[in-house]
Design brief:
Elements: E1 5-9, H1 30-37, E2 42-46, H2 59-62, E3 66-67, H3 70-113, E4 126-127, E5 150-163, E6 166-172, E7 177-182, H4 190-193, E8 200-209, E9 220-228, H5 242-245, H6 252-257, H7 259-262, H8 266-288, E10 292-293, E11 299-300, E12 311-315, E13 318-322, H9 327-337, E14 340-347, E15 360-369, H10 373-393, H11 395-404, E16 416-419, H12 420-429, H13 448-458, E17 462-465, E18 488-493, E19 497-504, H14 509-519, H15 527-530, E20 540-546, H16 547-554
Bound molecules: 4-amino-1,4-dioxobutan-2-aminium adenosine-5'-monophosphate.
4-amino-1,4-dioxobutan-2-aminium adenosine-5'-monophosphate (4AD) is lined by residues 304-305, 325, 327, 348, 350, 357-358, 361, 363, 365, 498-502, 542-546, 548-549, 560.
Main location: cytoplasm
Catalytic activity: tRNA(Asn) + L-asparagine + ATP = L-asparaginyl-tRNA(Asn) + AMP + diphosphate + H(+)
GO biological process, one term: asparaginyl-tRNA aminoacylation
Length: 575
Amino acid sequence: MAESTYYIDEDVGEDIDTRTGDESQPFKSLGFAVLTHGESHKFLARKSVTGEVPEGSDASARLEWKPAAKAALKKAVNYAKAQKKKAEKAQELEAQQAKVLADRTKVLDEAKKITLEEDKSLPAPVRIKLDETDAQKVTLGDGKEKKGTRVRVFGRVHRERRQKENMFITLRDGYGFMQVILQGQLAKTYDALTLTRETSMEILGELREVPEGAHAPNGRELHADYYKIHPGWQAAGGDDAITNRVSKDTEHATLLDLRHLTLRGETASKVLIVRDAVEWAFHVAYKELRFRKVSPPALVQTMVEGGATLFGLPYYNEEAFLTQSSQLYLETCLPSMGDVYCIEKSFRAEKSLTRRHLAEYTHVEAELDFVHFDDLLDHLENLMCRVLEVALEDPTIKQYVQDLNPEFQMPERPFKRMKYSEAIDWLVEHNIENEDGEPHKFGDDIAEAAERRMTDIINRPIFLTHFPTEIKAFYMLKDKEDPRVTESVDCLMPGVGEIVGGSMRIDQHEELMAAFKREGIDPTSYYWYTDQRKYGSSPHGGYGLGLERFLAWLCKQHTVRDTCLYPRYFGRCKP
Ligand code: 4AD
């Protein structure tokens, strides 16, 4: 190739392919000139300066073309080499990718030709849920052949993996998980090759014991002989795949926005399944104790636990609130129904963002007639333990609690009973200060942090009793022996703190009216409540247990936001 001359002007030159590189169209860099035209040429360079020439500098010297320095040329040659290599690599990669794509398209085109047909000569399948092991429905052979019943199952793809020619799918249906194996043609269909997590499937096949040493849910696996992904059952893939929307690294707020998807995860679903069992266990335990269930209104015109946390709403031409507690209504049922309970929503306009406060929570409340304070405490302890017993009788629930809270043990009985005044002494002895940073004193409302520290250190359920009148609700009965305090109880659990609040109720009319006056509450709208003291009063008491807090303790969840379906709290009312 004949030697040419190329010009490089570091100021006004341009590194673009359409330039010739002669004096009228110089390049900007030597590297570009060498890269595009090779090194065996003459290169003339200059640093012309447009605009203002700095004072003292010789403008004309900058306009003179000078042969490129040797070192600069060497650098430019190396640069050109590196650039060429880079370009070659990129080309190679592109070719590889194109081949992969072409191969994949070919495989998928072939796969599209495969259609599965159910073999009607096989035994008719039995429809089962994924956890069903009922011997009548499902048999797993005689141990020798290790084969079993032909079944039909429905579920969603929880996980999938390919191993050589086979596909292993973990199917999920809310009752359990099942390992499914697709072999031969079944693993080669278009549906199998493009299978995404959460896709719904109908699968037919034979249940077999897993080979020795292998593990699968319930020790079995489904050898599919036919499956179908019905129209619309495929789950989104690519960027929209569920694994790209929720993962363990996703921020908590995003997880809450996507709660409908988070619910499909193992932790959330286990917590909610335990919740179902616990709620059912409350019904069982109450029925055993002959409590009757009632359903008080959610729309009310009276408060129970102080005006600060009332949600108000327009109610036709009047004002109404969302109920804070069904207690007062439960009390009105005692004369005709005996002991009563309810499991209803309570609402609190809490402006705090703690891990144990919700704006809407499930409140398990009960009221007991003709009892004394000790009866109330005994009942509460029996009830809580019986609920745990009933819930954990179900082996699935027991397993889920074990998975979520491996250290869980049935609470030691009797529960520790501690008076408020003893707790104050305990806090002082342990140098746990009040919210003003001072040692606790009688009359202080023990704050959440202090209460939890005390409970965590004692590390067992505590019935904290006899709170001062001033820091408790208007309806609480004063202790006859010490009128400074009430016959009240909070049940505290390690890790969470207060999960139950209860008390004996004022049963004398005058005393109740005096309490309304003391608290500055107009008793007029409470006529239906105060009338109870006019028409055959009785010593009675009751309590409210926060279901989400009970579950946070049982399932060892950091926050009550994770123990309800769609949490509502300060700043969140969706989805
Ligand atoms: O102590 P509290 O406010 O008591 C009452 O409402 C009584 N009237 C109940 C009764 O005697 N029938 O609430 C009782 C329990 C608390 O111990 C706590 O577990 C739960 O209800 N709770 C909350 N749970 C979640 N979020 C909130 N904002 C809660 N407020 C109370």
